[in-house]
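User: Structure tokens for this complex, please. No commentary.
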Amino acid sequence: MRWHLLALGAIVVLGAAAAFGLRDAVTLDLFFTLLLYAVLGQSWNWISGYAGNISFGHAIFFGCGAYASALCVTHGLSPWLAIPAGALVAALLALVTGFPTLALRGHYFSIATIAVAALVDAFVRTQPWLGRANGFELPIQSGWAALQFPDKGPYVLLALALFAIVQLATIALERSRLGYYLRALRANHAAAASVGIDERRWKLIAFAWSATMAAAAGVLYAQYTLFVDPPSTIALAISIDIALIGVVGGIGTLWGPAAGALVYVVLAKGVALRIGGTGKGYDLVIYGAIICLIAAWKPHGIVGTVVDALRRRRGAADIPPGATGTA
Amino acid sequence: MNAATSSGTAALLEVRGLSKRFGSLRALDGVDLDVAEGSLTGLIGPNGAGKSTAFSCIAGADKPTAGSVRFRGREIAGLAYHRVAALGIGRTYQIVQTFADMTVLEAVTTAALLRHPHLRDAVAYAQDVLAFAGLADKRYRLGRALTIADKKRLEVARALATDPSLLLLDEVMAGLTPSECHDAVGLLRRIIARGITVLMVEHVMEVLMPIADHIVVIAAGKTIFTGAASEAVRDPRVIEAYLGSPLEHREIAEHKP
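Assistant:
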């Protein structure tokens, strides 16, 4: 655990230095996107990685935060209020979706997340108070109270803080009853029940926390772009991006989502910045090819592969818990 | 046949008329059995008699179609699996069910968390259980990397870590070498000495005969005999249903205590 905390501390220090030191808007934007996706990937990782129930609708929880932010600001309320409000709505949505489906075998949960996401998307597009398909443009303000800044530096700091909180929460998860129970349920639900684990109860707790994290990221995103509409927040494409980040990085690992977000940002955004302008979509071809390669060769993702290699090198017998990303 | 307790001690587990159908198949068709507190009861029967199904129905993994299962006088038939475990019934699986990507210590810790919600306490308790079960030196191995004997031992340790008052053991000796069996019997004796009541399904008769206080024989989903092990091998119904031909009977009887 000490190494995880040191690594996190190093990232926070370097990130803060970058936020204060860098002036290049493009680089800061990449940093912000990287941290935001790392948070979203970790949020997804709680229910889909540790608990093993793949969510294909995670963008709706992100959307809960973004829309809560838009509604608060356009109604003259503090955007800080959007964090608890958006998180609460997201957690309730997670409980309603998860209650009938999380304890079912097979792919019911994944299908349910897609269905609920489609419903939410359709619902938002018909509701005038949610801006219909046009969405919201947030009025421009400035300062910490309004959670808006003329520079990108403070946004990177906020994203960094959120990332640090989410990583700390995940370190705590791995060392908690919930974390052990989720891994046991993922590995063998019948054996888990035989030692007294109530699958529905513990998975609902994980799903609610997962939704809460995504909603917090949504608030930050809305305050950053000052524009919220269905395609940029709750669309299926966003949900799939989040799931891909989790899978590419390595599901059920502490650093997997961050690694997945790095690959995503460097490839999907970095490559797009250089060659995406050609209009030929090479960036997407490259990103798609990498996902195919990982799916075919390294289904445990980047971090999962490293952990496996560590285990092999040191011999599985001698690795105490906490020495690897999955322990 | 009389399944009611005659020994005078209170029955920890009372099963009456337990039935389970899978479609038209009657896997269980009226099983009666009692397990006295502090005893070791053996459950035997020919292949397909319904031993594992009976275990699943008692542990809550399966819902019985009919019948009653009373644990400490409380009806538990049809109760959710995890709630039966929380009430104090631990079980192992005939086909080992490990938490594949967990180390031995992590798997047993997971079970210990039922009574010790704080991880630190659960780990400490799991260490005790592993020492008790003779797995302490393998605690950082992955469950899937163990030998069959150690996997079975892990199953027992995991069930023990939930602090059960009744332990259901499903063929924990199957597939073990004679020396591994000897070790397993040692563990079994320590479990009984700890005051845990045991109901065990076992095929290895010579293992069960000397240690079982009571034997329940089921055949074709019904209880056909209840009594002492030495009587079981002489009972004509048991001989007919389970022991088969007189030749086999002689072989088994030679192993009796």
